[in-house]
Amino acid sequence: MVHRSFCLLIQKLEEESNPNDVMNEVSRTHQAIRSLDKSVSSLEMELAVERAKRNGGLGAAVPSKGLPKVFVVVGINTAFSSKKRRDSLRDTWVPRGDKLRQLEKEKGVVVRFVIGHSATPGGALDRAIDVEEAETRDFMRLDHVEGYHELSSKTRIYFAAAVATWDAAFYVKVDDDVHVNLGMLTNRLARYRTTPRVYVGCMKSGPVLSQKGVKYHEPESWKFGDEGNKYFRHATGQIYAISRDLASYISINQPILHRFANEDVSLGAWLIGLEVEHVDDRSLCCATPPDCEWKKQAGNVCAASFDWSCSGICKSVDRMRAIHSACGEGDGAVSNFAAA
């Protein structure tokens, strides 16, 4: 009905107005329709949450009332052994102390290192994080047992915990060996603020590896068809973002979301059958210098940079500062972002 009215409006404007007026009115109406679609999507998700609550729920409830309202939550996936990586980010693109709190309060940009607990809660590994957290106050602790083969579970739990803690337009997952320009990232995401059910990242379709013993082996390769087939399109795992309605969907349906061997494939599988807009944003997968440096000099600052050969920045602890110096957007970039 909305789209039929839209067509009638265009026909009427063509009859009564000059071409410039028609295009201006069409643009305004198109934006209004996108905003309406976003509102309807949000209402549908709230109804789903209420149904889940009444029926005992399939997963964690997703309350939005009373939560801090922000623009984006950036969750940096990290491990117990990665303190040097975390410090390399704190020395470059992750603000420390009051600056971190100011970024959250004034710009609605939340940045946290995301980690679970060890197999023996309260042990030496957990206590080390307790000490670090007391000093930095930049962690998000999950009810999750850390482990390389548990990344799909961790991703699922992260989105559920994040959407239950902050009412954000977007939720980002990024690895702790990736360089990010927060100002560019927020501005790229702001383009899709009114788009319902949006999934932003560098979309790829790699081979399904059925051979045992190789990196990224997929034990359930048979589900993807004949040997030699490729995965469906999904965002590469170094960094991606999803809108609030998709994070809520993941939270509600946690127990029945199947986990494949690779975390990025798992997320793609959860979303592939939904009405989701896949945004292939190559600014989120620039290479390290000279690539991101040349792009910066040309006025195309990258949102994220890493080395494909290492699935992150090779030797990131040693190189992060130099990459930030060459490809960083500058301290004022996030300050210029309008969160509203």
TrEMBL record:
<keyword id="KW-0472">Membrane</keyword>
<keyword id="KW-0328">Glycosyltransferase</keyword>
<keyword id="KW-0808">Transferase</keyword>
<keyword id="KW-1133">Transmembrane helix</keyword>
<protein>
    <recommendedName>
        <fullName>Hexosyltransferase</fullName>
        <ecNumber>2.4.1.-</ecNumber>
    </recommendedName>
</protein>
<comment type="pathway">
    <text>Protein modification; protein glycosylation.</text>
</comment>
<dbReference type="GO" id="GO:0000139">
    <property type="term" value="C:Golgi membrane"/>
</dbReference>
<comment type="similarity">
    <text>Belongs to the glycosyltransferase 31 family.</text>
</comment>
<keyword id="KW-0333">Golgi apparatus</keyword>
<dbReference type="GO" id="GO:0008378">
    <property type="term" value="F:galactosyltransferase activity"/>
</dbReference>
<dbReference type="InterPro" id="IPR002659">
    <property type="entry name" value="Glyco_trans_31"/>
</dbReference>
<keyword id="KW-0735">Signal-anchor</keyword>
<keyword id="KW-0464">Manganese</keyword>
<dbReference type="Pfam" id="PF01762">
    <property type="entry name" value="Galactosyl_T"/>
</dbReference>
<dbReference type="Pfam" id="PF13334">
    <property type="entry name" value="DUF4094"/>
</dbReference>
<dbReference type="InterPro" id="IPR025298">
    <property type="entry name" value="DUF4094"/>
</dbReference>
<feature type="domain" description="DUF4094">
    <location>
        <begin position="14"/>
        <end position="53"/>
    </location>
</feature>
<keyword id="KW-0812">Transmembrane</keyword>
